[in-house]
Design goal:
By secondary structure, this protein is mainly alpha-helical. It has two domains: 41 residues; 116 residues, no CATH class. The protein has six helices and no strands. The radius of gyration is 28 Å and the shape is elongated.
Length: 158
C-alpha cells in the first residue's frame, strides 16, 4: 500500500469519528432538552419552583410565576396569600413614602396607604399559614414604624 493512501485513510476515519460523535452529542442534547421541557410543564416542577422562591423569600418571582402560568386554587393558596400580602405591603410603603404635606394629594395618598395597610392587617387575621402570618406581621410592623413621608432604606423580607 501506498503511504499517502494510508495517511488519507487515517484522516478520513478520524473525520468520520468526529462527525459521528458530533451527531450523537446533538441527539443526546435534543433528547435531554425535550425531557427537561416536558418536566418543566408539570405541576410538580412549578410547585418546586414556587417552594424554592418561598424559602428564599423571592416573593416578586413567585408573583411572576403564578401570573405567567395562571396558578391558582387550593394547591397554590399559601403562595397566593403571601404574594398578595407582599403586594399590599409594597403599595402601602410606596404610598406612605409619596405623601406630600400640605396638598390635597396628601389625603389621597394617606387613604391609599391606610387601605393597603388594612389589607395587610386583614390578611394576617385570615391567614391559615403561620409562616405567612409571621412574615406579614414583620411587614406590618415595618409600616407602622414608618411615619408619613419617611423613607425606608430597603424593603424588609426577613
Amino acid at each position: 500500500m501506498n503511504r499517502n493512501f494510508i495517511i488519507k485513510l487515517v484522516f478520513k476515519i478520524i473525520g468520520c469519528i468526529i462527525c459521528v460523535f458530533s451527531i450523537i452529542m446533538l441527539v443526546v442534547g435534543y433528547v435531554d432538552e425535550a425531557i427537561y421541557d416536558a418536566y418543566s410543564e408539570t405541576d410538580a416542577y412549578r410547585l418546586s419552583d414556587l417552594e424554592d422562591d418561598y424559602a428564599s423569600k423571592r416573593y416578586d418571582d413567585m408573583y411572576s410565576t403564578m401570573n405567567l402560568y395562571e396558578l391558582n386554587g387550593e394547591t397554590y393558596e399559601k403562595y397566593t396569600e403571601i404574594c398578595q400580602a407582599y403586594n399590599d405591603y409594597l403599595l402601602a410603603d410606596a404610598y406612605m413614602q409619596s405623601e406630600i404635606n400640605g396638598t390635597e394629594e396628601n389625603l389621597i395618598t394617606e387613604n391609599k396607604a391606610n387601605e393597603y395597610r388594612d389589607n395587610l392587617e386583614n390578611a394576617i387575621k385570615k391567614s391559615r399559614y403561620p409562616t405567612n402570618q409571621k412574615q406579614m406581621q414583620k411587614w406590618l410592623d415595618e409600616l407602622d414604624s414608618l411615619g408619613p413621608g419617611e423613607e425606608q432604606t430597603e424593603i424588609v423580607v426577613d
